Amino acid sequence: MNVFKLKKVVCVMGMVLSGPVMAYGVTPVNPGVPGVPGGGLVLDIEEERRLVAIASNTEGVFTNSKGLKVNRVALEGLNELLPPIPENRTEPLALTFCSNTDEIQWGDCPTYKLGGRGPAGGWVFYVSDSGMRGLEASPEDQGNYEWGCYNTEFEGVTGTAIGSGAANTKIISESNCVGRYSYSGEIAARVSNNYELNGFDDWYLPSRDELYLMDKNLNAKGLGDFKGRSYWSSSNYTKSSRPDEFAWIQYFGGGNYGVSRFGELPVRSIRSF
């Protein structure tokens, strides 16, 4: 498969399909098949996420004068599947699948910064993949609750690292545990698991290390609107002779500690994007 640097693009339909795909711009020449433009080309518009495969395109790639009209009609026929075509845009655009939102959009995928707002409206406290992915904390506390599950040992809830909070929360919230002393009987992990905001329902109780990053990247900078001083993590505390009685907390502005599960502390849910 040949690679062609397409620099003068008006618009590229950026989906990889099994059948023909139409794009328009300057008509390329396929050196592998003399006189046949388009077929078997990968149009590299100089960004990794904008690779466009044109498979078995026997029609070739239209020139701008003809293709602009034909392709706009073709794309408008797919308006139930594609986002609206941008108006009054003169710069090159690609139709890009954004893995961090699971959506197709025109142009670059959204990126996020520490201390900014995330896709669900929470506070971003961790980013990776150049800001494409990360973690956001809910904009406010969910209240004070027990960790619960006193005298109950869990397998798989010992994860403390970044990325382990979701699995911890799932195991705890799906158990039959209740709060031992709280009036509601609700527990911290289940509160986070049931939390919803702006159409997002994939929240969870952070692990110990995720909670530490919330303190470091939000609270220490005066962000996040944290009302409490100590917050529950979803990580079981295993350094005790009774690992069925303790869980990790983060003391904001301090360190992390193992404390008894039956005390009530603030809950701040997070989600991955």
In words, what does this structure look like?
The protein is an alpha+beta fold and 273 residues long. It has 2 domains: 2-106, no CATH class; 123-272, no CATH class. The protein is 14% helix and 23% strand. It is built from 4 helices and 15 strands. A 3-stranded mixed beta sheet has the order 1-4-5, with no helix packed on it. A 3-stranded antiparallel beta sheet has the order 8-9-15, covered by helices on one side. Strands 11-12-13 form a 3-stranded antiparallel beta sheet. The model is unreliable at 1-65 (pLDDT under 50).
Q: The biggest beta sheet, please?
A: 3 strands, mixed
- 3D shape: elongated
The string of secondary-structure elements, in order, is EEEEEHEEEEEHHHEEEEE
Approximate helicity band = 10-25%
Using the CA coordinates, give the radius of gyration: 25 Å
Structural class: alpha+beta
Low-confidence stretches: 1-65
Average pLDDT: 75
Number of domains: 2
List the strand order in the largest sheet.
1-4-5
Give the percentage of residues in beta strands: 15-25%
The number of helical segments is 4
* Total beta-strand segments: 15
Distance N terminus to C terminus? 34 Å
